[in-house]
């Protein structure tokens, strides 16, 4: 398979391979990667979507500027996609946007606002309950058909998805990837320009120690070219505390609708003295009412709730784009997505070590959090190996904020595995966003379960 | 000092010795205890109140039915009270009822209702901040004047008070006592009557394993005469879930204004499968909005908020009673208070072992909670020794509910020791009752600090 | 079953019921116990021995001075003994004295001397390997036939036996009892006489905190009548360090051949500042070569190796005595054995709480040792409940000495369960007494395994 | 200081800068490193030796083939060496070879053989006691004069030296380096040639997970080019178990006198299923008598004891060589030493990340070992940052072998800091090599202390 520095005949299984956006980004990155070639098997319950991506991918590969030679194929079954796979990429939507609309908007009746609704909070918990059985199936299939493959998860809720894979198949070689930390590294690069006039710093040049759980990660040391960035951040957070910081990152098309002015991060710095390392929309959801007490309050914190209607409209746009790409009215071009998936694949193939933040079961990298909880820290990726970097321990108060979600996610996992409403309610009612009387909380959870019951097979919701 | 089975010339220092209620109960129990005699030194910043209790106590001792011969003296200083003490009893009010009114009622502006306001929640935290410096002083004085004395704390917030004593003087022989678990043991005795027709069971005959922290303790096994009480409780909690259980305990005059129908306990049983072991008023405050979301909601849970105005009126009544007792218009009679203080003193003097629930630093008795945190479990009291019983571990979800308060109380302690508003806000904003936007939370804490600033010497509250 | 303060129709299963000594002691204690009556089912693989004890027991019961009315019956099977049992007592010999001779004396070829050979060291490990499958069987039978019974283990190796019961049947209500700590409490009573002229103190009046593992327990605080005994012990250990202390305890016929002058204890005090709480013969075996480097060295430490030949002779004497007791030439008299078994049974029946040292899985009572390891600390025994007392933590260096045996015993358990020679050798070679070249260690273990292979069914010892 | 990719005016303090061997290797590596230039300040209590190295170093720099431009200066004081330092290298001998002769050979009287005597065992402990006060001094000086400098320790006992630095100055940026793991990586490369005919693999291409403590490190996964090396090692260890493996590594002049046939490693593999990752001479010393029971036994394991007389002779040879180098009769040539010091310096300067094994306080990288213990695992070195890789946990039995040394080294540290003979004896007698009667152990330790008392200032050895 390896020819000099080239890896050929690589086989990648893409579960959720009908996705737009994520799939196109990956195709684009693969096209740019001259050391690699092989086959990508696209599997999706929306088989038509997979087939369209097969066409789009093969057309992209045919472009002269595409260096990596890749063949895209639609797989009829999970088994067909997985057999022989060297890598498995999972990026799916649990249920539909209609289900997600229930996740995000039903709680609004009770004054609970969620900016994303896919990680924690009522929405994140319901989403987890829907996705756990699917991930059980994935883990079992990987164990049967490609137990040695590397598995990269992109689906949210990241922690629960990755944790489920390990729960079912403890020897799995899986990890979860998320670009939220990158955005904060870009903010630090912008900060260098704003505060010190240093231009053109790439986010990869900002070295950070990352610790926490996905979407609620923290940076307790950061450095650029020998400079300690924490004292500069202190100034920066103070300078822009009231107004927010405006040089938004618009380069990355994936993110452009999800802006904020970083006021939540600045306030978390003021409270805890650390850099919170995710987008404000995600951070806010871990902090109970702090930044989500009312629409006005949210507006004053300068981030926005992402309505599911936007996602639906966006899907329409992407489907239209997808048709144009299939018809040849538009052409996907190989340009970097800013994601690290292909770099990680290369590192695991032995084409150069890399250090980046990933989600993995705790073997000690996060002191103070339970062993086996899925945590996010840096890790060294090298040939066929991923070793988390020991990140140390969070300050007691931040650890406590994180811990309640760690425990809650573990309870959610058990609820999803056992399809147990009582366990689900322990998690639901313990979420800091669910600041309701217990009867209201029960009524809300029940309504959300019933709304999405077609995605909850085996639950007794009579 | 020991004469056969009698202990004479015992010296007890009573800090807060001007108290009504508690002090009179102790005097009464001492009068009934024929094995003991000695001196009680009453120390109080309200010296007049101490002096009145001196008269009341000595008059009680003079009654023919008083077996224990005790002399009551007012001490002019902490040092005078403590020098030579064998036992130190601490039962004080931090600040005034006016300060307590701020603790309890200021948060109501923001929709935060507190049934007691002396343990956790905004009120509990502010009360802790006021009391920590006082307890630092007590610990230092005990270290100087009677380092070998046994110290029994009755003051709330129990956990923080006891923790402060150990923080300042780690070798102190202190523990905290609280009667809330007794009330639940009485409830279990009532349950035996109600469910099985077994009458006349005394609460001491109900054996329970107690674990948790003060006012948020749990019972995970309970037994009467070889019978496992958990399955019976399951039936009982189901039977009275909606209406509540009505055979209220009215024997104990200390408790008569603090009734509930135990619906919070029954709901906690439904949620977690354990018996929550404190009064509903206290339990509710640890559970965020669950049982305290609105006055209507609270009413439907069938417990009541204790307004501070009631405490003020009650004080007036007690002062009047105190005057009658001093004038001889009324006579304090020796009858058992239902409290265990004197039994504990006897056990520590070697007059018979006892097992009861107390608050002590964790040396392993509560697996899963941090070492040195003050936890409440059973302990064996024997001559000059108190050994906590290993209580095991709480279920994950309950442990998580408890843990957030454990961490918060530790942060509160550091805030109080360092007089640091930033640390205080970490605790304040992490309390599950403070389900507010962060700006509102800041405004509320600041208002509460300013309201009580005369009891916060050394704080920079400009 | 309960009639006022009397418990009738109690059923006790005695596994190893053909034993002499232990069985007679128990019979004697039962005869003295007026609150109890019932049936003892004697089960033994040596059925004749059980039958002889049946006769002896019933004859004892018939004596006018016997208050407790007990019927002794021989059980034909484990099932017959266990069905309906309220209590199970286990006191057996794994293998024969011939096997024990191999345990104790084979290692002498390699300069390894063992004073007992039944706990740790090469002998203790081999004994454990033999006994584990038997205890697996006991645990399974108890689970099937009397899962609610209280199980009291007296067999050595105590830790491994008790640990095996819990490994197989985690809900078992078992604990292990050992009188070694009592001997040290008696020594402390003797010390009071010797050093302070205080006579007639009973060992039960000496309160101690006990912590460690069976036969390697420690006392870090001790008290008599309000007096701290540690400073006195310091003087005492110094005074008798060279000569040893000579007032040997000869009251207890069970112990009379197992005397020492306590020099090992005094030396351990010198080294670690704690009171080692077992007989010197047992303590020495945990300490590698320290007190067992050569026969001369052992003699200078003033304890003796117990040759298995003595045990064989003693058995002969006991068999003869047994025959005399059966024939009526001699009469067993009800007199207290000094053991606590019957007191513990009473406490568990609700006839009065007691605090004593027992062996139980760690639920936190021994901080610093792994959860679930069987440890020895005090516990409170009350009706149908045994709650270990949190004993705190050993000093680092003592903890380390203890820990290596804890890990080793866990490995031994796995070796015995899996019948795995490789695992057994990990334990064997890690024992501090096995200070041999690895080839010698392998040869020794193999010889010991082969010597006793008839008691190692299922092992592949080809 | 940074000019493009060049770092100029770097300042290195070399404590022990009069050393031969190590110093010359470093000089050689610096001469080869074209990106770096600056000053090396040589500090040594043997100032003449430092001065000779100054001459040798400057002469080396002057060679045309030397790319890195370095100036060597002798420092008169520690302060002079440290002020302004960017890096501090510490490589010293505690005491003299005469002291080391006592460490290594005195125990032989008691049948205790040590192959090196500088890490654990009687010799390692005595060496630690001598060196701790010196390292206290170093840590204080670094704190005063160059608190931001990176400190690389090469001195043995590595663990205790590094631990002392952190004990005294917790914010120090220190780590310990040792080449023993490299030798095992070379062995794995040789294995690839021997077993699979794969030639020319460099040790850097063997990826390993390293865990344990210095000189008792283990490898639980190893990979070359996607191949799992553990199954191959199993074959390899079996094939050469009896005879040992003979392709000795003779490239590295530093190591040529310290060969072995790896039989100890093969036997440890047989016992524990892991690759022990240090030279056999070091490994053996951690394993009690296993491989060191007698000179004959040692010979059969095919490694040799390094007599201190050899070290003395070698010193003589090196002094002669040093004189030749000073006189110009011989010329030091820039050729790679095989050590990684300069690579690490470059990585810390931001000239390329590297992953290698280092000794650092445990922040979670070694699950199962105590926090703050100095452990050896991989770490990522990048600009101004060193982050240990989470290495997971050792199997229980190996962990237990390691743990006893971890505890012992901590006790040794306290003994050295407090100059407490009693504490020293706790460590000494707990070392598995000290399989002696306690009186002999006491006599031996005392003799060793007295032999070296001039290096133990402040000890009360009367």
From TrEMBL, chains A, B, C, D:
Give the coiled coil ranges. Answer: none
Recite the UniProt cofactor note for this protein. Answer: Binds 1 NAD(+) per subunit.
Needed co-factor(s): NAD(+); Mn(2+)
* Keywords for this protein: Carbohydrate metabolism, Glycosidase, Hydrolase, Manganese, Metal-binding, NAD
Q: Which residues form the Glycosyl hydrolase family 4 C-terminal domain?
A: 210-434
- What SUPFAM superfamilies does this protein map onto? LDH C-terminal domain-like (SSF56327), NAD(P)-binding Rossmann-fold domains (SSF51735)
Classification via Gene3D superfamilies: AglA-like glucosidase
- Report the PANTHER family cross-referenced here: 6-PHOSPHO-BETA-GLUCOSIDASE-RELATED, ALPHA-GALACTURONIDASE
Entry similarity comment: Belongs to the glycosyl hydrolase 4 family.
For this entry, the protein name equals Alpha-glucosidase/alpha-galactosidase
Q: Name the source organism.
A: Paenibacillus haidiansis
Q: What is the lineage of its organism?
A: Bacteria, Bacillati, Bacillota, Bacilli, Bacillales
């Amino acid at each position: 398979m390896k020819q000099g520095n080239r890896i050929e005949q690589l086989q990648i299984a893409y579960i959720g391979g009908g996705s737009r956006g994520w799939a196109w980004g990956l195709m684009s990155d693969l096209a740019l990667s001259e050391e690699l070639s092989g086959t990508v098997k696209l599997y999706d319950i929306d088989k038509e979507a997979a087939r369209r991506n097969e066409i789009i991918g093969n057309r992209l590969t045919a472009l002269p500027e595409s260096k990596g030679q890749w063949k895209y194929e639609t797989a009829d079954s999970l088994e067909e996609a997985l057999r022989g796979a060297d890598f498995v990429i999972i990026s799916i939507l649990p249920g539909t946007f209609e289900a997600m609309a229930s996740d995000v908007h039903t709680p609004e009746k009770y004054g609970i606002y969620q900016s994303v609704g896919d990680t924690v909070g009522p929405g994140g918990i319901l989403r987890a309950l829907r996705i756990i059985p699917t991930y059980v199936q994935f883990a079992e299939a990987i164990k049967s058909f490609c137990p040695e493959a590397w598995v990269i998860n992109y689906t949210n809720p990241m922690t629960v998805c990755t944790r489920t894979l390990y729960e079912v198949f403890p020897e799995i070689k899986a990890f979860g990837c998320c670009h939220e930390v990158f955005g904060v590294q870009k903010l630090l690069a912008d900060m260098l320009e704003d505060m010190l006039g240093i231009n053109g710093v790439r986010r990869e040049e900002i070295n950070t120690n990352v610790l926490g759980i996905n979407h609620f990660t923290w940076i307790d040391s950061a450095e650029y070219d020998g400079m300690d960035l924490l004292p500069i951040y202190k100034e920066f957070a103070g300078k822009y505390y009231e107004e927010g910081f405006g040089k938004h990152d618009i380069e990355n098309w994936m993110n452009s609708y999800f802006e904020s002015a970083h006021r939540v991060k600045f306030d978390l710095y003021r409270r805890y003295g650390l850099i919170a390392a995710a987008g404000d929309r995600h951070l806010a959801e871990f902090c109970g009412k702090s930044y989500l007490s009312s629409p006005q309050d949210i507006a004053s914190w300068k981030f926005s709730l992402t309505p599911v209607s936007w996602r639906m409209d966006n899907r329409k746009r992407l489907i239209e784009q997808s048709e144009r790409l299939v018809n040849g009215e538009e052409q996907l071009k190989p340009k970097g997505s800013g994601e690290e998936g292909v770099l990680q694949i290369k590192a695991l193939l032995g084409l150069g070590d890399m250090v980046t933040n990933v989600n993995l079961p705790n073997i000690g990298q996060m002191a103070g959090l339970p062993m086996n909880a899925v945590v996010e820290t840096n890790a060294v990726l090298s040939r066929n190996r991923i070793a988390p970097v020991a990140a140390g321990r969070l300050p007691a108060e931040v650890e406590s904020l994180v811990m309640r979600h760690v425990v809650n996610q573990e309870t959610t996992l058990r609820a999803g595995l056992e399809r147990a409403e009582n366990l689900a309610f322990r998690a639901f009612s313990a979420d800091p966003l669910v600041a309701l009387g217990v009867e209201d909380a029960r009524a809300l959870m029940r309504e959300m379960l019933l709304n999405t019951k077609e995605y909850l097979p085996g639950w007794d919701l009579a």
